[in-house]
C-alpha cells in the first residue's frame, strides 16, 4: 500500500497528478491487484490508452503487473474509452483497462477499469483490497506466465459504429470536427470517410501536451477554434471531443455551443418509444422531462458519473441516458457512453428533418438555464456547510438529495453538488422567465461566494 497514494482512488475512476500521485510503480501494483481481484486463471485483459505523454509508461507498467499474475493481455494502443469498452465485448474479455485522465489537463493521468461486458469497477473496491491486505502481497502467478499481444480493433469498431448510420446521411453534411489532440482522431477519420461525410479536421494529431486547447470540451476556450471554423467555412455544425473521446459537445451552424440537456431531450424525442425509460443527472433541464412526457416515457434523475449511470441502466434495462457534461449512454452500446454513436444519431435525425441544428433544437429552448457555475473550495467540509445552509434557506421548495441538493419551485429550480473529480462545487439554475433566472443567479452565487 505504501507504493500507492489512496487519494487517486476516486468515485468513478483512478486519477491523479503524474508522477507525484500516480506513476509506474503505482500502475504496476494496480495491475497485479487487478488480476487478483478478477480471481480468474489467466484472465484475458484488454488495455488501451489516450495520448498523454505519461500514458505509454503507465500502460507498460500496468501490463507488466498483469503479466506477473498470468494475465493474457491484448494491447490495443491509442484508442478512445468507448473503443476499449467495445473491445472488451467484441473479444469476450474478462476485463479491460483504459489509461486516461479523461478531460483533465496533461499533468494528470489515471485508469478506468471494467470487468467482462465492460461493466465498470468501483475504484473503492480495489482500494479496500489494498487496505485489508487481501491482495497486497500477491505471489507470482502459479499459473503459466502471462503473455502480451498487440491487436488493431479500429476496423471492427468503425464497422460497428457505421452500422447505426442511415444511408441518407451520405454526402449530406459538412462538419467541423475537433478531437482536442486526443485519442479520437484516427477513429473519427476512418468513420467519417466510411460514411462519406465531408469535414474539416481540427487537432486530430495525437499530442498529450494538448497544445491547442484544454481537453475539456465544455470550456469556452476549447470551443473557440471550432466556432471560428464553422463560421468561416459555413459548416452545417461542429463538435468537440475530450481527450479519451467519450464526451461530445455540439456547436450549431452559428458556432453556438449546445447544452447537453438539449441534446438529451432531442434524442429522447426522436429515439424513445412508449414504455422506454430514460436516466439523466441532477443538472439536466426540465425540458428533458417535458420531451419524455410527450412520448409517454419515464425519466429518472440519478447520481452523476458513468459508474452510477451504467449500473442504474443495467439494473432497470434503460435504453438511453444522458448527462449535461456531454456523456450519452446507450443500451445498444453496452450501457456505456459513446460520443461517436451520439454523433451518428444526431446526423440520422437531421437527415430526415432537413433543418439546421439550431432550428431543430428551437422547440427545446423553452426554459432559461444558467451556465454551470464552478466554485473552488478548500475542502469537502466547506461544500457540506454551503449545502446545509442552502437547505435551510430554501426550505419552502421541494428538496431532493440524489446528487447534492436540488430545490424545486413552480417557476424555477437549482442543483448544487460537490464534484468528485475536482475541488469545486457545481451550481445549475433554471427558470421559466429570464428576469427570474438572473435574480436567482445573483442571489445564490453571491451567497456561495461569501464562503470564500
What does this structure look like?
The structure is a single chain. By secondary structure, the protein is α/β, with parallel strands linked by helices. It folds into 3 domains: 6-152, Alpha-D-Glucose-1,6-Bisphosphate, subunit A, domain 3 (Alpha-D-Glucose-1,6-Bisphosphate, Chain A, domain 3, 3-Layer(aba) Sandwich), CATH 3.40.120.10; 157-364, Alpha-D-Glucose-1,6-Bisphosphate, subunit A, domain 3 (Alpha-D-Glucose-1,6-Bisphosphate, Chain A, domain 3, 3-Layer(aba) Sandwich); 368-449, TATA-Binding Protein (2-Layer Sandwich). 36% of the residues lie in helices and 21% in strands. It is built from 14 helices and 21 strands. A 6-stranded mixed beta sheet has the order 1-5-4-2-3-6, sandwiched between helices. Strands 16, 17, 18, 19, 20 and 21 form a 6-stranded antiparallel beta sheet that branches. A 5-stranded mixed beta sheet has the order 12-11-13-14-15, sandwiched between helices. A hairpin with a 6-residue loop joins strand 9 (237-241) and strand 10 (248-251). It is globular, with a radius of gyration of 22 Å. It starts with 13 loop residues before the first strand and ends with a helix.
Estimate the global geometry from the Cα principal axes.
Answer: globular
Instruction: Determine and state the CATH class of the largest domain.
Output: Alpha Beta
Helicity range: 25-40%
Sketch the major β-sheet.
Answer: 6 strands, mixed
Q: CATH superfamily of the largest domain, please?
A: Alpha-D-Glucose-1,6-Bisphosphate, subunit A, domain 3
Amino acid at each position: 500500500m505504501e507504493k500507492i497514494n489512496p487519494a487517486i482512488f476516486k468515485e468513478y475512476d483512478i486519477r491523479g497528478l503524474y508522477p507525484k500521485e500516480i506513476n509506474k510503480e503505482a500502475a504496476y501494483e494496480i495491475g497485479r491487484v487487478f488480476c487478483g481481484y478478477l480471481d480468474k486463471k489467466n484472465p484475458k485483459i484488454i488495455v488501451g490508452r489516450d495520448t498523454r505523454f505519461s500514458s505509454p509508461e503507465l500502460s507498460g507498467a500496468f501490463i507488466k503487473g498483469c503479466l506477473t499474475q498470468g494475465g493474457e493481455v491484448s494491447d490495443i494502443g491509442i484508442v478512445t474509452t468507448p473503443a476499449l469498452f467495445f473491445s472488451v465485448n467484441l473479444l469476450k474479455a474478462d476485463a479491460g483497462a483504459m489509461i486516461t485522465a479523461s478531460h483533465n489537463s496533461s499533468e494528470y493521468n489515471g485508469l478506468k477499469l471494467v470487468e467482462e461486458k465492460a461493466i465498470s469497477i468501483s475504484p473503492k473496491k480495489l482500494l479496500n483490497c489494498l487496505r485489508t491486505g487481501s491482495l497486497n502481497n500477491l505471489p507470482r502467478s502459479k499459473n503459466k506466465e502471462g503473455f502480451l499481444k498487440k491487436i488493431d480493433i479500429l476496423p471492427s469498431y468503425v464497422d460497428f459504429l457505421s452500422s447505426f448510420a442511415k444511408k441518407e446521411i451520405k454526402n449530406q453534411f459538412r462538419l467541423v470536427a475537433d478531437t482536442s489532440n486526443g485519442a479520437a482522431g484516427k477513429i473519427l477519420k476512418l468513420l467519417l470517410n466510411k460514411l462519406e461525410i465531408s469535414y474539416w479536421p481540427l487537432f486530430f494529431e495525437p499530442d498529450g501536451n494538448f497544445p491547442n486547447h484544454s481537453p475539456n470540451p465544455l470550456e469556452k476556450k476549447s470551443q473557440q477554434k471550432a466556432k471560428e471554423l464553422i463560421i468561416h467555412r459555413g459548416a452545417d455544425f461542429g463538435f468537440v471531443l475530450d481527450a479519451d473521446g467519450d464526451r461530445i459537445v455540439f456547436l450549431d451552424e452559428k458556432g453556438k455551443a449546445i447544452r447537453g440537456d438539449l441534446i438529451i431531450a432531442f434524442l429522447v424525442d426522436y429515439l424513445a418509444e412508449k414504455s422506454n425509460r430514460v436516466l439523466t443527472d441532477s443538472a439536466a433541464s426540465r425540458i428533458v422531462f417535458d420531451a419524455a412526457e410527450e412520448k409517454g416515457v419515464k425519466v429518472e434523475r440519478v447520481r452523476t458519473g458513468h459508474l452510477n449511470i451504467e449500473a442504474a441502466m443495467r439494473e432497470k434495462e434503460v435504453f438511453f441516458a444522458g448527462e449535461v457534461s456531454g456523456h450519452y449512454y446507450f443500451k445498444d452500446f453496452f450501457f456505456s457512453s459513446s460520443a461517436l454513436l451520439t454523433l451518428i444519431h444526431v446526423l440520422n435525425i437531421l437527415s430526415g428533418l432537413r433543418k439546421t441544428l439550431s432550428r431543430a433544437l428551437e422547440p427545446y429552448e423553452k426554459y432559461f438555464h444558467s451556465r454551470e457555475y464552478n466554485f473552488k473550495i478548500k475542502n469537502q467540509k466547506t461544500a457540506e456547510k454551503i449545502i446545509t445552509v442552502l437547505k435551510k434557506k430554501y426550505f419552502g421548495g421541494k428538496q431532493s438529495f440524489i446528487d447534492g441538493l436540488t430545490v424545486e419551485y413552480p417557476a424555477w429550480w437549482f442543483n448544487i453538488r460537490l464534484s468528485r473529480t475536482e475541488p469545486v462545487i457545481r451550481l445549475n439554475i433554471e427558470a421559466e422567465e429570464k428576469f427570474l433566472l438572473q435574480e436567482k443567479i445573483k442571489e445564490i452565487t453571491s451567497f456561495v461566494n461569501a464562503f470564500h
